[in-house]
């Protein structure tokens, strides 16, 4: 009885509003439903589809993106939780970006992809990049949900800084819950409530600019391919200025799964 009560008490303490800096449920609008009300400026066709919870925003992979009205401070890193249903890459396109704060003109902060990188464009994984220097990619910290240590070594990085537990690709045309979790020591990727991989942080501070916008569904100045637009649907995007606990990550996944399945 005591064990059951303790578990219930622990679950009842989960408060997913703590540290929440932005929340986009995409229920027929691009409003931020956190207390910050950092609403989006919609540069899409405004197509909504059935989502994991209510509706979801669909991105056409060629022109669609949403720019946030106010930028978000990334200097200490951020944590992201979202549901994605990817349709994969379109020939000639590149990264399938989910969210970014990035400019090749010297204001690189972060971006999260859903495809891959260059020759791995068809890999269909969640891959995140954090940048300590705005003017160069030197010192970049990245981790992919489906990248092995052997592949990391091929990129001339030290694989000992990565922990690869369960390499996992995105299944196309299927809703997947994704968390990019930024802790004090690591950058982690979780898919459907399971830890896939992480990179040990070598930097406490990342580059941030009060002028560079945050973009959902594209990298405006990524430089690779024809463009970097997301080809698929996005739902329940949450941005935190703190790491999520295992219980919180699994709670977000289970609640979404219960609503949809």
Verbal overview:
It is a single chain. With 261 residues, this protein is mostly beta strands. The chain has a single domain (18-260), classed as Sandwich (Jelly Rolls), CATH 2.60.120.200. 12% of the residues lie in helices and 31% in strands. It is built from three helices and 16 strands. The chain has helices at 2-12, 149-154, 246-260, and strands at residues 20-24, 40-43, 48-50, 55-60, 65-68, 79-86, 97-101, 110-113, 127-130, 141-144, 162-164, 176-182, 186-191, 194-200, 215-216, 231-240. Strand 12 (176-182) and strand 13 (186-191) form a beta hairpin. It is globular. The relative contact order is 0.24.
Throw out a few tags for this protein.
Jelly Rolls; 261 residues; seven-stranded antiparallel beta sheet; mainly beta; globular; 16 strands; nine-stranded antiparallel beta sheet
